[in-house]
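ingest -> validate -> predict -> emit
validate: passed (alphabet ok, no gaps, 115 aa)
predict: started
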Amino acid sequence: MSPFAYETRLLAQASSALVDLPVGADRAGQVLGDFLRRAPLLVALGVRVLVWMTPFFPLLFAGRFRLFGGLSGEERVEVWSRALTHRRWVLRQLAMLYKTIACLCAYDFDAARVG
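emit:
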């Protein structure tokens, strides 16, 4: 499975806000594509659904009626800080999963070198 350009753009925007480093869409696409090829089918589909939920995070976590791409950098960071401290365990865990993927994108992790 290879990621769509829309997915890589969403992942790059969210990753840049999560780790406070610029993450390019090409790097996000490379990491996401590698992950989707190696992960079991249900895990890959779950991560894809999580990425497709990104535009709606401001509504879920901050109560704002704007899409994620329309927020400023500070507002994106605020959405993530609320997500990571949300009172519902499932939403906190989804945010942590996203943060893990963002770290893989930002810090030049290469799965081919590891295993």
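The two ends are 20 Å apart (CA to CA).
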